[in-house]
Amino acid sequence: MGCFFSKRRKAEKESQPEDEEVQPKQYSWDQREKVDLKDYMFSGLKDVTVGRLPGKVAGQQFLIQDCENCNIYIFDHSATVTIDDCTNCVIFLGPVKGSVFFRNCRDCKCALACQQFRVRDCRKLEVFLCCATQPIIESSTNIKFSCFQWYYPELAFQFKDAGLSIFNNTWSSIHDFTPVSGERNWSLLPEDAVVQDHVPLPTSEELKAVRVSTEASRSIVPVSRGQRQKSSDESCLVVLFAGDYTIANARKLIDEMVAKGFFLVQTKEVSMKAEDAQRVFREKAPDFLPLLNKGPVIALEFNGDGAVEGCQLIVNETFRGTKIFVSESKETAPGDVDSFYNFADIQMGI
Predict the structure, then answer these.
(1) Phi, psi dihedrals of residue 270, rounded to the nearest 5°
(2) Which of 35, 130, 142, 293 is deepest in the core (most CB within 10 A)?
(3) Which residue range(s) make up the domain with 66?
(4) Domain shared by 66 and 108, yes or no
(5) What tens digit of pLDDT does each residue of 232-282 get?
(6) CA–CA distance, 78 with 76 (Å, rounded to integer)
(7) Quick one: which residues bind GTP (predicted)?
C-alpha cells in the first residue's frame, strides 16, 4: 500500500515541463546582506586620520592592527574590538558590548567605553575609560587611566544598543595580573588632565561632522573620581529608584552637587532584592521595598565636607515628592556607602 502524499509529489514532479528550470530554495540566511570584513578593520595604516561614522559599524566586531602615527575614531557601537601592534596612535571607540583587548601596543592615547577591558604586552598607554567590570593589565608597564569624558548626539543610544549602563564605570579599579615587587605598572592621570590634550578631536571633514564635546558637564558618562584619595572624611550615599525620570534626576543631582563644590566618587546601576534593601536601608527598607520591582536603582556617592546636609537640601528642594534614599547623617553615611557598594560589587562580579 503506497503513501498518498508520495504519489501526489511524484505526480506534481511529472507534471512539470522538462525545460522549466527548478529554482533553488531560498533560506533567510541567504538573503542577509554580505559583510565585507574590510569595512570592519584598519590595518597597516600610517600617518592618517580614519574612522567610522555613527551607524557604519552597527554592532559588528572590529579589528585595528599594525597602525602607526594614526588618529582613529569609531563613532559607533561594536561587539568586540581588538587592537594589535599599534604605535603612537590616538584611538576613540564608541560603546563596545563585549571586550576591548590591546596587545603589543605602545605610546597610544585612547578614550573608550566597554564591558571588559584588557591590556597585554603593552607600554605607555593613556586611557580615558568607561568599563563595567574591573580593567585588567598583564605584562604591561606605564599604563595610565582616567574617567571617560565624551559626548556626541548618538552616544547615549549607542550605550543602550551595546547593553551598557553609563553609571557602571569601574575605570580606576585596576587589576594587575603581573605585579612587580616595589614597582607599579599603572597609575591614574592627574585629575585636571584635559581630554583633548590626550585624545584630540578629529580634523578630517568627514569626521568633523560628528558633533563632539569633551566638556565634563556634557559627558554621557558621569565624570567620577574613582579610587583617587578623597578630599574629606565625609561621604554621602544617594539611591534613586526606577521611574520615568530616574536618569535625568540622577544627572541633575550630580550637576547640583558638583556646582556646590562636592565630588562625585562613584556610581552604580544595579537590581536590588528585598534582602539587599534590608542590609542597605535598614529601618527605612519597608518604605522602598515596593519600588524595587520597577527596575534597577541608581546609586551615587558624593564626597566633601557637608556632603550629607548639602545633598539632603538639594533633594528636598528639587526632588520633592520623589522617593530617594539619602544618608541620614555623616555618622551613618560611611556604613551606607560600604553596604551598598559591597553588595553591588558582589552582584556584578567585581
Answers:
(1) -155, 150
(2) 130
(3) 37-209
(4) yes
(5) 999 999 999 998 899 999 999 999 999 999 999 999 999 998 988 888 888
(6) 7
(7) 98-99, 115-118
User: What does DSSP say about strands 49-52 and 71-74: parallel, antiparallel, or unpaired?
Assistant: parallel
The full DSSP string for 173-189 is --EESS--TT--SEEEP
Q: What is the pLDDT of residue 5?
A: 47
Q: Which residues are annotated as a binding site for GTP?
A: 98-99, 115-118
The ranges of the chain with pLDDT < 70 are: 1-34, 343, 346-350
| CATH code: domain of residue 183 | 2.160.20.70
Annotated binding site: 98-99, 115-118
Residue 107 located in a structural domain = yes
Number of domains forming the structure of the chain: 2
pTM here? Answer: 0.87
Distances (CA, A) of 58 to 62, 71, 84, 207, 287: 10, 21, 22, 17, 42
Q: Which residue has the cell 563585549?
A: 98
Q: Which three cell numbers stand for residue 245?
A: 525620570
Give the whole-angstrom CA distance, residue 86 versus residue 245: 42
Name the β-bridge partners of 301: 237, 266
- Let me know whether 183 and 238 are in one domain: no
